[in-house]
Amino acid sequence: MDWNIAEAKQRFSEVVKFAVQEPQMIYNRSQPVAALIAAEEFAHYQAWKAEQTRPRSMAEEFAELRKLLIDAGCEDGLELPPRTTRPNAFDEMLEQEYPTGAGQ
Predict the structure, then answer these.
(1) 30-37 — which CB contacts under 8 Å span 24+ positions?
(2) pLDDT per residue of the chain (104 residues) written in tens, 0 to 9
(3) In this structure, what CATH number is given to the domain that contains residue 22?
């Protein structure tokens, strides 16, 4: 139900009673200025807002990634190719400069 400010002020207890059932909009000159909602609904809003503003932890990010992988059919995670040793220019340079076993 919609209320203008004067009416909401005069019938405040009624506005509160209706707010338990559904949000009550309060208007000033046809412009919405406030909404009265049930305490339980407000608690849900506060929890949602806190969740939106709180940075997610790495554990939460990985849990979401794991869920997405399972939903995509990769229950054991991504299939990775076997590890191989790649050429390492620095290692090769060291071998040339300081050969293993030289001078022994």
Answers:
(1) 33/5, 36/8
(2) 899 999 999 999 999 999 999 999 999 999 999 999 999 999 999 998 988 877 889 999 989 888 888 888 877 666 778 889 889 999 999 999 998 755 54
(3) 3.40.1620.10
